[in-house]
Amino acid sequence: MRTARRAVGIGFWLAVVVGAMPAQAACKVGRIAEIPITMRGMRAIVDTTVNGKPAPFILDSGAFFSIVPPAVAKALDLPETTAPPGFYIRGVGGSASAGVVRVAHFGLAGVDIPNVEFVRGGTDFGETGLLGQNILGLADVEYDLPGGAVRLFRPEGCGKLAMAYWAGGKPFFEIPIEPKETARYHTIGTVELDGAKLRAMFDTGASGTVVSLRAAARAGVKPGDPGVEAAGWSTGLGRRVKQGWIGSFKLLRVGNEELHNVRLRIADLGDSDTDMLLGADYLISHRLYVSNAQHRIYFTYTGGKLFEQSAQMAANSVIPVHAADAEGPLDAEGYARRGAMFQTQRDLPKAIEAFSQAISLAPRQAKFLRQRSMAYLAEGRPVLALDDLDAALALDPNDHDARLSRAALRLRAGNRTGAIGDLDQLGTQLPREDADRMRIAQLYSNADAYDAAIAQFDLWMAAHREDAGRARALNGRCWARALANTDLDKARSDCDAAVRAVPGNASYLDSRGLVALRQGRNEAAIADFNAALALEPKLAWSLYCRGIAEQRLGQKDAATQDFAAAVQIQPNVAERAKRIGLTTEAGHPH
Fold first, then answer.
1. Which of 17, 117, 159, 589 has CA 20 to 30 A from 1's CA?
2. For residue range 496-516, what is the model confidence (pLDDT) as tens digits?
3. 199 and 98, same structural domain?
4. Phi then psi for 261, rounded to 5 degrees?
5. What is the domain-level CATH number for residue 71?
């Protein structure tokens, strides 16, 4: 492994030069902007304003242009401008039709930017949109997710000077990247995975690092191999949903950094020529300076987990350069950003401590209480989480995130009436097009409020006609109708569409099986439950309902076996079935 280089000090200026650099006195680096970011899980969130309204965006270095989904554009009443004929966008989930909308006043990092254009299209990820390379790629950019900031710089006369200015003489890493024009305005370098050279995109918008199926095969790992596990589904800008797997690799080299024993997600990245997306699970433990002028990234490891804690740094390869080393006193927002990063890194005691500091400095800010409540919940302290949510909503009854979280927590605690009350209030507060209507619908279903759930699914689907979440919404509406034993033909149509979109999803097959059981089509029900159980053998609901269908067909031994297996996995499954009117014959578990 090459020895990590050491940084040379750089004099920075904001509007004027504030320091000279002895090694290369002509080098001047102007800071264009510092953009605060807050981690929300594995998403880096940038708080902006759109025409004066708060508008959180996902920081997405993998997006060639900033994007607003159609439902959000409609909710914000953004005017459409002329787009080229046949204009579309392409991502992990395939392609999607697109247009162009204009924001009259876009607020970013305290600056009001007039008449900013955004691409309109793609999947609604629950935020205002994606902040892409038309802003992030203006000049040089520093991604400091551990420090809660992205910084834009304009260097002059710096030549090939190492730009890891924060390292302070400690070792750092570097990797060459393709020129922006060659990389189609993405940040792309060549990495090595178990000897295979891969074209990797540094993508803050990808919550997890992903290797394409073709690239994983070149590195010697394929689905079906020993140790390769199915790992759910991937979505992107397009409406298609892709199967994912997790595989183990011995060595990942990113420039002169070596990471050993990594477990990475594998998925079909479509016809893209990118082999790997280096996502937020890598970037939350690194600080990077992307020198578009030099076609090089300078970066340091800041400590903390790598790829869900599976990877190991090469022994003695580098001393962690912690983000907090050079920080001065923090304000409430700074402590909240620090707490969010600690929570993302699963250091919950430090997260709670940082959020508590934010609350002590700004006790009237509801969002800090909401953030601490999520840390308490992750730590398994739901009573304290509920106390914080109650306090947050007392301060700000319009905090939709706090109300939605409280509804879920109340439901989990058995307070069905309180949960439904929160959901009813959210239903009247949110725009019709809001992405959270999907989550509201799911919680209504869990609360046995099926008519309300179906109404919310209807609203979501009307506003999200070309979205990767449609199959999930179709399944959810099918499931609600099946539980309610109403409009079963419509339920079957929804489930058929969901299964066509994602044929290998056990939950969708399970839902369609319940519809068939309700309709008395017992052979069809057994076929769907068989298919679901082939994918996930421990689905208690599929086992129990298959038992009912078998019992109806006189297959008593098979039914008895399924009932016993279901109850062993989920002891209350019979009670749940009885609650919705599914009963077994005497002599069997109920």
1. 159
2. 999 999 998 999 999 999 999
3. no
4. 55, 60
5. 2.40.70.10
